[in-house]
Design a protein that fits this description.
This protein is mainly beta. It has a single domain, classed as Immunoglobulin-like, CATH 2.60.40. The chain is built from 2 helices and 8 strands, in the order H-E-E-E-E-E-E-H-E-E. Strands 2, 3, 5, 6 and 7 form a 5-stranded antiparallel beta sheet that branches. The chain has a 3-stranded mixed beta sheet with strand order 4-1-8, with no helix packed on it. The chain is globular and about 40 Å long. 23% of the residues are buried.
């Protein structure tokens, strides 16, 4: 019975896909890192309900590495949106003009102008790309 359980566990691990995410530029060691992985432009970058994977991690270092493991990661284009929820209120805080007041970043580190990047500006091919680095701004 134990051998069968171990076998089923190993099979479940092999069916999970991985993305290794490295987030740098964390200036304050407080709050949580909010991460959302999108498989399309639907909801990108702010509607986490449209994401295929969402997680939050307690900030413990100025550079963090996360392993994103999900059965929902299949071959295709993905984009990742990250922000540091410094005050732990569950939202990306903004100023009166709508600009973020908390650190944020996106896969491919697109140049940020007066708007959030579009999906195609932050997307990467998976599984060709499994190591993603994001610099918080």
């Amino acid at each position: 019975m134990r051998l069968m359980t171990l076998f089923l566990f190993l099979i479940s691990l092999s069916s999970q896909a991985f993305i290794d995410l490295k987030v740098s530029g964390i200036k304050e060691l407080k709050g949580t890192l909010q991460v959302a992985v999108f498989a399309s432009s639907e909801g990108f970058p702010s509607d986490h309900h449209q994401a295929v994977y969402v997680t939050q991690e307690v900030i413990y270092d100025h550079e963090m590495t996360l392993s994103i493991a999900s059965e929902d990661l299949v071959e295709g284009e993905y984009a990742i949106a990250v922000y540091q929820d410094v005050n732990n209120d569950g939202v990306l805080n903004r100023n009166l003009f709508g600009a973020p007041t908390e650190p944020y970043g996106f896969s491919q580190n697109p140049r940020i102008r007066l708007r959030a990047p579009r999906f195609h500006e932050a997307s990467f091919p998976y599984p060709e790309t499994v190591d993603v680095e994001i610099e918080l701004k």
